[in-house]
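Input.
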Amino acid sequence: MGLFDTHAHLDDKRFADDWDALWAKITAAGVTRIVNVGYDLVSSARSIDLAERYEPIYAAVGIHPHDAVGVDDTVLTQLEQMAAHPKVVAIGEMGLDYYRDLSPRDQQRQVFRAQLDLARRLGKPVIIHDRDAHGDVMAILEEAAPTLRGGVLHCFSGSWEMAQHCLKLGFHISLAGPVTYTNARHLLDIARQVPLERLLIETDAPYLAPHPLRGTRNDSANVALIAERIAELRAMEPAVLAEQTLRNGCALFGIPVP
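Output.
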């Protein structure tokens, strides 16, 4: 069966110098499915290129809230054209980021809603970025959820109450490296309580490397460490958790189980 890293940025320049060795490492770790996620038009195009070259890799195309400034109808049209590619399985990452505020908040919300509308029209699931914007993210998702084909709150950082709300709206919860950190106590409860059939795992590579690799360049092979930690918290075998989260991801993104 293998592991599914449902959110990575393997097109990042930090992987350019040792890509062949890295890909061998990822394959040896048992990773059989990856969604490489765009955050602007350029990275979305690179994600599609990776998906064309490597059978286990699929692509998501989207505009990160950091890059919402300057997005117009032309950009959204280009995004829609990219989304027609047969290996594009989701729209995202999209959402709100009130931590860095690199784009005006009103424009973040506008571009977020525009991409949700695009996903609705195309019948594709969504990948949601939420940092320090829980209230507005949930308000917008409440409006959109009834017409969406599901989605995932990636690298989930909210409370268990928020997670329950997301689940009621039909979304999946994805956990990344922070679930292995000793100071992330609230994530431990979420890892234990999210229904197994609605749980995904991810690396967000090259960011957020799990313990004991925290502070280093992250990569998709490390999704195994995240699976092991969550399995430990749930008192189950890592292989069982890996199989279920792989099936969950394949069902959400509409791709074949390996």
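The mean pLDDT is 97.
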